[in-house]
């Protein structure tokens, strides 16, 4: 008995010490983050400085000031970075700052979608047009990083590094065979011959329509890539295409020969180049200023004023609300990384009811999701229009299906050339697992019902033809509602919208030609447009939805990280396909969702 109590007490003591240690780590990290933030706040840029852009943290739409969620809990360090818009503010002001001589673009693995990378590249191009230099260096260059650094002169890399120019590809995964082996079936009910969402569950390969649209999509993205890369490297896009088709560029030497890279230099040689350029006494005397440090050196007015806009004064009361609509669209509040219909509707409502709000910019970065939640959000955009408040949409990397639904009512829609948009179509999924339960698990199901349709969505029996017809009728109605929303919002006839819809996906450039978007541009352009529509010469920006409670957000992030860890452990190599289809299966309602979100350039 004594040994039992000793064991219990030792276990309790161990748990207590573990909790205290965890709390101590949290306190130390928060203190470190706070201390670094305090030092940044007093940072002063010295004459002869170089803006050092590493881009080694994920590019994000909106920065997060919560120190608890800005920590990499695996490596116990801060992972807070600037948002893309804050990076653009840094590039805008540093281009005019006589203390900044140039930019050192120090690249490794840049994490961000194609549109975010394009925005940073365009910011660097504007910086260079100011007359200052940009030097880029990397151990190796992917196609995406080559494009991002293409304006640099010189563009350098390690002599033994790898550089590739080989074109783009998509590689969808199909799970029908796996479901067959498990004695499972998925019934796909959709509208739109191009609505590829769900095909991976019911087919073994791409349908002809889906193959056609995916080819058109990546060809559009590829053309944009070659045009910008060719413009910055003084090479014709056709020349670049021939180089890629022949796999000519495979290493550092071939990249130099092709004109994609200027010099083969090790890092110390790059530092020596900058030493000579800035006339520093030695390499260790180089004044390298990070983007975060430079941003902290700006006064609050400049930090919160988008490039090209007039800074707000003490007398400025008028506001432009920027409402961020990011992630899968779901009903309710939504978890981390999701766009909860209730939460986003509340944000739009707050913007509308604030008498100081003179315009609203809806920043959409979403592949869609629940058709019902999309409609609830759309209703709030309608009320903003009815209130006489200008509404402008700025599309991010993806604004498709439900993401396009919530954008359709805007006065004006901005997209980037590589934005993935359109996908005007809907579908529903009805799984059947009766044979799996019986044959694999030995579980059988019986039923007692009050009528023929009481168990219409049961997973344990196959649908009857009349039940399928009922569900198809519902899907058809949601599709007609979708077409009507787009028709009224874009001023197009329903027949015209239907010809563009049927689930077809487009790039932003393609959508512009078809009238689905109005202009090419980023968030800054959308805000400037909203200001013109509201006739504002000066304004304040208000970002919505408002930040969650810091501790609540921290607990949610930890819970999400643990759930993700469990999923990786349980699914192994099937983790990525599982992550892809999980929201489809979890959402039993009719969905307006994009089939896949193309990854950043490899």
Give your account of this protein's structure:
Helices cover 46% and strands 17% of the residues. The chain is an alpha/beta fold and 602 residues long. Strands 10, 13, 15, 16, 17, 19, 20 and 21 form an 8-stranded mixed sheet that branches. Strands 8-6-5-4-1-9 form a 6-stranded parallel sheet, with helices on both faces. A two-stranded antiparallel ribbon has the order 2-3. Helix 7 crosses helix 8, helix 13 runs parallel beside helix 14 (371-386) and helix 17 crosses helix 18. The longest helix is centred in the first third of the chain and has 40 residues, at 2-41. It is globular.
Task: Indicate the topology.
Blueprint: H1 2-41, E1 49-53, E2 71-72, E3 77-78, H2 84-96, E4 100-106, H3 114-129, E5 133-138, H4 143-148, E6 155-157, H5 176-181, E7 185-191, H6 199-202, H7 208-233, H8 237-245, H9 252-258, E8 263-264, H10 267-278, E9 288-290, H11 291-297, H12 300-303, E10 319-326, E11 328-330, E12 338-340, H13 341-353, E13 357-366, E14 368-370, H14 371-386, E15 391-400, H15 402-405, E16 412-415, E17 420-422, E18 426-432, H16 434-441, H17 465-490, H18 494-500, E19 505-507, H19 508-514, E20 519-520, H20 523-534, E21 540-544, H21 550-571, H22 575-586, E22 591-593
Helix pairs in contact: 2-3, 2-11, 7-8, 13-14, 17-18
Attribute tags:
6-stranded parallel sheet, 602 residues, 22 helices, alpha/beta, globular, 17% strand, 8-stranded mixed sheet
